[in-house]
Amino acid sequence: MKFDTGKDLVEVQGMLVEKDALNIVDKLRAYDDNLDILYLSPDRADGEVNEAPYIIVEKCRDGYWRRVFEVWTLDEKVLERIYNADTTRHDLMAVMDGRVVDLKKERNQRFKEQLAESTDIYAHLLKNPTTSYSFPNADGQIVKMDDKFGVTHVDGKSVEKG
After folding, report:
1. What's the pLDDT score for residue 45?
2. Is 50 exceeded by the pLDDT of residue 140?
């Protein structure tokens, strides 16, 4: 009898297992030998319809296996979730602090770029002897300003003052 799921299958202890899922199990065990994945057989379920079939467990110091979380599919997201939650192997505060520093640098860079653009516009305005000026705003619209009336046109449309 042949059985084709469209995925590579491997026989493990008399059971057919998807090769991709087995790869996730191997990677998890290699990452931390206290972690394992249990498969909840549908015929052994305790009647809960919404219970996920895979349970990630950790063997604790007291010898008991404790549920870490449940998943419906074994894929790279399981490993990402484990890696991101692991506070024993990396300092989450340092990672977060690094992200905050990066965000501040990006914000300061955007501010400097906007300041340089505004400085350039005003330098051109001061050099120009006319009383009306046109320039592109941050949205790419052409803005026309007048010394006496302020902004008079945006993209060729008249702006009414209220």
Report:
1. 52
2. yes
Residue 143 near residue 153, CB atoms below 8 Å? yes
pLDDT, averaged across the chain: 81
* 143 within 8 A of 137, measured Cβ to Cβ: yes
> For residue 113, how many C-alpha atoms fall within 13 Å in the half-sphere facing its CB?
7
- Per the CB < 8 A criterion, the answer to whether 34 and 82 are in contact is no
- Residue 114, number of CB atoms within 10 A of its CB: 11
Q: What one-character-per-residue DSSP string does 83-125 give?
A: HHH-TTTS-HHHHHHHHHHHHHHHHHHHHHHHHHHHHHHHHHH
Type of residue found at 114: Q
- Give start and end residues of each alpha helix (H) in the chain: 19-31, 76-85, 92-127
Alpha-carbon Rg for the chain in angstroms = 31
Beta-carbon count within 10 A of 74 CB: 22
Nearest to 40 by CA among 20, 28, 57: 57
- CA separation, residue 158 to residues 32, 100, 134, 139 (Å): 67, 43, 13, 17
CA-nearest of 87, 93, 28 to 57 is 28
> What does pTM read for this prediction?
0.48
